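Journal club side-thread
Mid-discussion, someone asked how the predicted structure for our own chain would compare to the paper's figures. Pasting it here so we can look after the session.
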Amino acid sequence: MNNIFKGLYTALITPFKDNRIDFLSLEKMIEYQVSNNVDGIVIAGSTGEGASLSREEFLSLLQAASDIIKKRISLIAGCSASSTSLAINQVIEAQKIPIDGVMATTPYYVRPTQDGLYKHFNAIHEIAEVPIILYSVPVRTGVDFTDDTIIKLAKLPRIVAFKDAGKDIERPLRLSAKVKSSFSLLSGDDEVSLAFNAHGGVGCVSVISNIMPKMCKELQEQWSKGNFKSALKIHQQLLPLYKAMFSEPNPIGVKYAAQYLGICGSELRLPLTFATLETQEKIELALKTLGK
């Protein structure tokens, strides 16, 4: 299966207004991403508060995104659940909408074994008609893949990429030598995205690109062209924003930054709460330093 998952993908925030999806802001946000040449967006991931969406909201959000994008960039559906049956149903329903792939985390809370993880993703693979991105975010799910499980899953034809939001920066170095060359390793952590590429990665699923898509795209392009010093300079310029944005659990910081820049409102769904004054000040200072 053709693997398109390289470069910059934005883990898009979900805009809310009065506890409903703000579709007018969604269109504005997506056009902002398209105009800055991101390679794709992920809808209803952890940054998009996917766990707080009802089935109807998830599908209406995904359909609206598809209608706005019109195949100009790739559209990835976040399909994660604590049970295999729920994840499968989510993938089946998402595939009724024109999407380019699905991204799924390890099942959260239940802490399956490695054998359970393999069987979970193999079951998703059996019903999937689109490419699958494995997503490791152990700080949220409580469980992680071993290298052996990733390598085994990477042999399945529709599992084509791995998004890594863990802190083991050595992992892409190990995996890139053992998986097929077409299997994409993507950073899920903006702060280590450049180091991740240096160890065998081919891109980033970014939170910061909600706010700074042009710089995040340029960072990835400069790296892919071999302009390492230029990529490093951009990364260093973004570092204060990385630190400020993740002062509190994601997407609290990025939602505030989006409001500050007039991209969308900062409304979150409980149990997430509004950014503290200290976080607001850090984000504002970092954005002003970047000319925003």
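Post-session note: The mean pLDDT is 95.
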